[in-house]
Structure prediction request, 645 residues.
Amino acid sequence: MIKRPAKKRTARATTAAAPAVPLTDFLDAAGSLTLDERKILVDQALLLLSENYVHLPLKIAMHAVNPVQRLRVMRARMERQTPDTMQPEWMFHREMSSIVNSVRDLHTNYLLPAPFAGKIAYLPFMIEKCYDTDGTEHYLITQTVTGYEAPQFGPGAEVTHWSGTPIARAVALNGERFAGSNEAANLARGLESLTLRPLVIQAPPDEDWVTLTYVGLDGSDQELREQWKVTDNLPPMTNLDAVGETSAAMGLDLDSDEKSRAKKTLYVRDVVELEGGRSSAELATPAAVTGTDLPTTMPGVFRAREVSTPSGRFGHLRIFTFSVTDPVAFRDEFVRLAGVLPQNGLIVDVRDNGGGHIYASEFTLQTMTPRRIAPEPVQFISTPLNLKLCRRHQFNPSGIDLGPWFDSLDLAIETGAQYSAAKPITPEDGANDIGQQYHGPVVLITDARVYSATDIFTAGFADHEIGTILGVDDNTGAGGANVWTHGLLASLLNEPPPPDETSPYVALPNGANLRVAIRRTLRVGKLAGTPVEDLGVQPHETHRMTRADLLDGNVDLLNKAGALLAAMPVRRLDLKTSITGTTLTVAIDAQGIDRVDLYLEDRPISSEDVTGPLSIDILDAAAGQVLRADGYDGGALVASRRQAV
Prediction:
């Protein structure tokens, strides 16, 4: 509580790695769209929302919005404007963003043109929320840009007001401007966007500066005024407009991805240097960011370490993003790191992960469960334009196979079906080709910024009953879709040559772009057929972040995860094989397992009760064949291991 009038002070900050300029200077040089170019953007947004957007019926029903009509009204009013009377460009961008954001879908975006693309607006500190044991909220400074100075300011200072507004109310009001699918997602994004805004996807701040009221590190009442600045962001992992398997298999919250790269730029320069400025880079030699981390070939993707809790020592494997070009390399590095960590329990932490390559997320699930993975199926909405896209690519002429959805879309004209058949994007063979690699219990930590491919990963984790989900929020971000850009959609009607002369897609001006949720994802298992969009995945257990979590390495959160792991059974299924002639000898050492079934090249060979170490001879075997051992406890499949003999 503020007990006396606070004294204003102006803070002093250093710049980020790239030169930073005041927001006002940046905006003075921005804005060159003509009236005709603005009309193109509105027309193309209308096309994508009415013909490609898979969630439009759901969003109209759940949120009582009509973005298509709003765009039609906007377009009609533009016919009455002239170059002299048209609204300022910043107002045009704000209206476009407002209309697209009204559907509350972080996959469906209006992306601002140059000079906004590739830029971030930022304040030189980060704020996070924590709770007392009685549920009282606190908003703490947790990061500052290197060299930033203000009186009694730094990690642990508590923010009470934002430009005169109580901080909790400011967060809620800011959250209403963004596209979270539920209240938890709105608040999480409202807080994050108070200090960091990727200008490609968020309109620039209205204010040139903010006034921050806070309780200083010594308990004194303080106030400072801080100016918004603009600098370059790190480049994205891949060109999402290019025709190819990677861009077609993306499930990515661009806002989170941009912010993740921006946070590295501002606060984690060690990772930027290790990656050589290339996002999600794969290094030739593993490197560790800190002395307590395991070296990894993907320092911008993974952080792996052993953590000590009152319940024991466990592995902690943080996944910052699934935004990679090689999903098999991602899976294999996950397996390598998990194999080096303690085998009695693994904490997989996907907080703040906005998704990426859907293959990477679903390929990784198999490594933690003996069950066969059923990738989440997806559906197109039935429209003539989606049918045209699938017809052109039904035989995979350019690396994007839309054949599985073509027949059902073709029949929908006659049947009136609203959606295509549900088919997986991720190849089922790839989702099951190496099987379980980690046999200990697993806890998955989530929050409201989990989105897209990470929502798919979390849903698969729940649907295949891999372990316990521990959420620091009451839900994930609830983004269940595969997302394509306007550029990719346009290219799909132009490739392979010759281009479709009837294509309705028109090139967008000044590097502007649009993204749209093109295929919606559905759950499998007990919730089969339930959409992920807007519903998300609720955790089995929740933990409210504490002051110690924010300032001391998530200590209370990890202790809670450790307690959950300690209450779960530990399994072990070790195989040693040797082959002499055509006789294969298999030595089995198991824990938490009472029966093992053996298969050679998927043919059943033997079923053995386990009361201690076993040795079994298998006749008529050959080198190179694959042996699979399935372990059971009380009749339930609890472990599996494969290896070539």
